[in-house]
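Board notes (copied after class):
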Amino acid sequence: MGRAFRTPRPRRHRWAACHERLIDALLTLARAESATSDLLPVDLAEVACSVLDQMDERCRRRNLRVRAHLDEAPVTGDPLLLEQMIGNFVDNAVKYNLDEGVLDVRTGTTAAGAFVGVGNDGATLAPHEIPVLFEPFRRLTDRVGSTRGSGLGLSIVRAVAHTHHGDAAAAPRTGGGLTVTVTLPCAR
């Protein structure tokens, strides 16, 4: 009697998923660095609220305390790119946060424009380390070699901000962690 052999099903290797995410990130970066064409009224508070809803399960799994203070922050821009931008830096803040840490998300307006800021608890960072975080494929030494990302998240954030005539900045938090803030011109 012959032995029955099963044809092995092709398994999707975990690296395939990583490559897909990398390609998506590179395409987003390229799109962010080109001129925006779909300029529509967007409230950064609504976008941040939507992103937080999407991240809710991940935050709960990590026992993160989410503090959101979302005041109106009207801008004119590409809604998809702005959602990707906020999604990237909220994703970073969740990914590099401490378990049971705090995730702060704020939106509003100042004399400089409309802003969205995201802060998290985490490793203590020196001020001289901050600029590296915005460079493509560059991560801090404690993050290099991890499977947590490609080093494009904050590069995309800055590229989208620049495309919308704004800027992105980051500052280390007292006690560890990081706050990233994007400021864009207010909608007229």
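Comment from the instructor: The CA atoms of residues 153 and 175 lie 23 Å apart. Confidence is low (pLDDT under 50) at residues 141-147.
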